[in-house]
Design goal:
By secondary structure, the protein is mainly alpha-helical. The protein contains 3 helices and 2 strands, in the order ββααα.
Length: 118
């Protein structure tokens, strides 16, 4: 069982072993576990917290420009999360899709990229 560990830029440590990938092949759909799920969830929790605090800034009548600065920070954090998910998807799903010549999965990725890059 060969495990390897990544440390993401926000300091989250992700360890995954390559044994657990084999039992998912065969059936389609998004049951495969992603290595970075934990990191993504951590970031999302932080984003939600960040948004809550921006919301209370608005409620407390804080300066609009401060609110906008915070919102743009959230926006770039959301892009960061999207990027992790996208890269992870390419690493796992697209490799399989290409190998299995799965046109549909590739079309879906293209759609996702179009949405993401709007």
């Amino acid at each position: 069982m060969n495990e390897h560990t990544h440390i993401l830029e926000d300091g989250t440590v992700v360890t995954h072993s390559h044994d657990d990938h084999h039992d998912h092949h065969g059936h389609h759909g998004h049951t495969h576990s992603h290595a970075h799920t934990k990191a993504v969830l951590n970031r999302m929790s932080r984003l939600i917290g960040h948004l809550e605090s921006i919301k209370s800034m608005v409620e407390n009548g804080r300066d609009c420009s401060e609110v906008l600065i915070q919102l743009s920070a959230v926006k770039s954090a959301i892009n960061g999360v999207s990027k992790i998910i996208l890269k992870d998807h390419m690493e796992h799903c697209i490799v399989d899709a290409v190998r299995d010549n799965d046109k549909e999965a590739i079309d879906q990725l293209n759609k996702a990229i179009d949405q993401f890059m709007k």
